Amino acid sequence: MTQITGTRRDGVIHVPAGTGPSLWIPEDTQSEDALGSVKATYTVKVDSATTGGTLSAVEASVPPGSGPPPHAHDHADEAYYILEGTFEVLDGDRLITARPGDFVFIPRGTTHRFKNVGADAARMLFLFTPAGFEGLFYEIGERAVPGQPWPRVTEKDVERAGEAGPRYFP
Hints:
Elements: E1 7-9, E2 12-14, E3 22-25, E4 40-46, H1 48-51, E5 56-62, E6 77-84, E7 87-91, E8 94-98, E9 103-106, E10 112-116, E11 122-129, H2 134-140, E12 142-143, H3 155-168
Antiparallel strand pairs: 1-2, 3-4, 3-12, 4-5, 5-11, 6-9, 6-11, 7-8, 7-10
Helix pairs in contact: 2-3
């Protein structure tokens, strides 16, 4: 599942549109209403293995009202480039509204979260540097089935996230 389908030639990595491992991700596994919420779809465009650990990029399609709980990454900077829809981004205690074309950079150690505040699915590109955080998505996600509706978060998803979380949020 961790193999990227892009090609590398003379140091350039090319990942065509519509390719890369797609995963259904339970974004919020900590709130009281997490069970039964809808999973997002994350498509890994490049990962640590592909870039030698320098960068990972993940395209996310996020259902309305979805997003992870507030958290911080101690070992990676994170950035969002908004493709479609509207996201509310938490920066510590400040809220930012991010729309298509907006870019948000989150330095490591900063408490943050995002939430799709629109009525339709919203899309963004995540960037992590250095790479490695995408490993959490591989661990807690399940292969997305094209054309199928987003599945609901289950007890097993919550358990998997609880086991994997400490490896990515020390």
